[in-house]
Write a structure and sequence with these properties.
The protein has 7 helices and 6 strands. By secondary structure, it is mostly helical. A hairpin with a 4-residue loop joins strand 5 and strand 6 (about 135).
């Protein structure tokens, strides 16, 4: 299955680009003519400018998510690494701690890092392996992945809005040959909107609560265990909405900076601030493992 996913990744990336190009073709050769709009005159030029803006950001963030490494551990491997892994194994089986060494890579594993069997590497703050970008979503490319989802949803919404009048209003007989392509684009955009909304809401929640998808399920289990013991549990990485948001998108000059192209300055992915306020020598709050 891992091999299938590795092969499928580049195929789905190319398929996605082809799908974007197909919808762009339908826009210029079917949607605009069916609505009697000219791309060079008002209001057709305004509609087109909005569409091109969305498409440019969509492509930029998708390409960035594909080709930006999510980040991989860069830690010194101790000479007795195999002994440390062997000593840790019984504790892991009893559920007494979390893996600090990767048994596959034979190297130390930073907090919040996980091994991806598809990429065959440990990934910093791994969220999941996404076949639609042929890459893992992690520390360094999470921004691009989320903005890709966001701009794709906006693009689908815009597509449906452009198609709906042409489909539901009366169409002159000489323009009815456009109906099939326009209807296909509207159905495709509408279906994608629903799936993207669910995914976008989930990842928006993960961002503002400072969790990854992997941590979400692990934290639920830890919370349930604490409740059964009559104890309190909280996510130590949750620093509040604003700081959690900045750990993915960085600190921008303007309130809308997070929507713009660019690589955010979000640290090295090996250390994250926590609510425990235990600081290291670099002034960063050393991560206390909760996942």
């Amino acid at each position: 299955m891992d091999l299938v996913m590795r092969i499928l990744g580049p195929i789905l990336v190319i398929f996605a680009w082809g799908l974007f190009a197909c919808v762009t073709y339908i826009y210029f050769w079917h949607i605009l003519p069916m609505r009697s709009l000219d791309v060079w005159t008002f209001p057709g030029n305004i509609y087109t400018a909005v569409g091109v803006f969305i498409l440019t950001n969509l492509y930029y963030n998708h390409v960035s998510a594909v080709f930006t490494s999510p980040g991989h551990p860069q830690m010194e491997t101790p000479p007795n690494i195999e002994q440390l892994i062997a000593e840790e194994a019984p504790l892991l089986r009893r559920g007494e701690n979390f893996a600090r060494y990767c048994r596959t890579c034979i190297q130390p594993k930073p907090d919040r890092a996980h091994h991806c069997h598809i990429c065959r590497k440990c990934v910093l703050k791994m969220d999941h392996h996404c076949p639609w970008i042929g890459n893992c979503v992690g520390h360094a490319n999470y921004k691009f992945f989320f903005l890709f989802i966001l701009y794709l949803w906006v693009g689908c919404f815009y597509l449906v809005c452009m198609c709906a009048p042409a489909v539901f209003w009366a169409v002159p007989p000489e323009l009815r040959h456009h109906e099939g392509a326009v209807f296909f684009a509207m159905v495709l955009g509408g279906a994608a909107m629903v799936a993207l909304a669910i995914m976008g809401i989930l990842h928006g929640y993960l961002i503002v609560t400072n969790q990854s998808t992997i941590e979400l399920y692990t934290n639920r289990r830890l919370r349930s265990m604490a409740i059964r013991k009559g104890e309190q549990w909280f996510n130590k990485y949750d620093l509040g909405f604003r700081k959690n948001f900045q750990q993915v998108f960085g600190v921008g000059r303007y309130w809308f900076s997070w929507l713009l192209p660019g690589h955010p300055s979000i640290g090295d992915g090996h250390h994250y601030p926590t609510a425990s306020h235990h600081h290291d020598s670099n002034g960063l709050t050393t991560l206390s493992r909760t996942v």
